[in-house]
């Protein structure tokens, strides 16, 4: 099974996403501070990251750009998770290097479908 990293500044969103992934059999690691993303990726070596876009200190786009400089993240897939769901937002997220874009609110079924598609 895969290792999934959740990066979100909202503890409620982390809990919801973790619950959605619980039955998938994947290992879940969560992070509430995007400034620690590089260190966490180096230590945990996740296969896929679910990355919130709107966060204080460093948004998801900035976090993804920082992760692209980390050798341990070279094969890691990133899915943006955001309440910003306009066509422009989705296109911009994909242009930044994400493999997919999940719009909040989402269902556990949407999360598992995304994982099936990308893992």
Automatic annotation (TrEMBL):
PANTHER family, per the entry: CHEY SUBFAMILY, STRESS RESPONSE REGULATOR PROTEIN 1
Q: Which PROSITE patterns match?
A: RESPONSE_REGULATORY
Name used for this protein in its record: Cyclic di-GMP phosphodiesterase VC_1348
Q: Known Pfam families for this protein?
A: Response_reg
Segments passing through the bilayer: none
For this UniProt record, the keywords arranged alphabetically read as follows:
Phosphoprotein
Instruction: Say which species the protein is native to.
Output: Deinococcus xinjiangensis
Per the record's keyword annotation, is Phosphoprotein included, yes or no? yes
Q: Which residues carry this modification: 4-aspartylphosphate?
A: 52
List the SUPFAM superfamilies: CheY-like
Taxonomic lineage: Bacteria, Thermotogati, Deinococcota, Deinococci, Deinococcales
Q: Where is the Response regulatory domain?
A: 3-119
Lineage top rank: taxon: Bacteria
